[in-house]
Design goal:
The chain is an all-alpha fold. One of its GO terms (cellular component) is plasma membrane.
Length: 210
Amino acid sequence: MLKLLRPAVTRVLTPLGRALARHGISPNAVTAAGTLGTVAAALFFYPRGQLFAGTVVITFFVLADLLDGVMARMSGTGSTWGAFLDSTLDRLGDAGIFSGLAIWLVVSGQRTLAGIALFCLVAGALVSYVKARAEGLGMTCDVGLAERPERLVVGLVSAGLAGLGVPYILAVGLWLLAAASAITVGQRLLHVYRQAVSAPSRPLRSSGER
């Protein structure tokens, strides 16, 4: 759904990406800086209960996730390593955000909601893993209700509004996100299952994952 907004965001970020590229800053450096900033802000602000301030700072760094792609396309420096690094660091950024929220919820005595935040973290990682594993086996898996942009928007908006004093919004956001993530995992599993059962059987080497 939010993919429709990507062209507009790209046009806004292009001048900044061009300026950074002129100064010799690589897309991978932007990716790493964005993730470091996201994790640091989430683990600094959220456990202190500074949800609005934390969300503003995190949102700034999350934009680096789009900026690095803009820079790679402009400079023609996109690479397999860059794509791998971006995907891997996305998981680290998500972990920082939801871990920070979970810590604050535990400290404030909202243990059930802290559990939901951790469920959102695990389910979000599973959503991404199912797609990566399916594509590694030669299948497609670009389906689902809540991809990473949607999950980030729901999580950050609900946290930011909670920081402004809107009652129950964080609980609503996290429960909604947990349900949407679980549904997305199911959608992707079903999508891969249908492809697998309709494809000719062939021996597969174990990936060695445990």
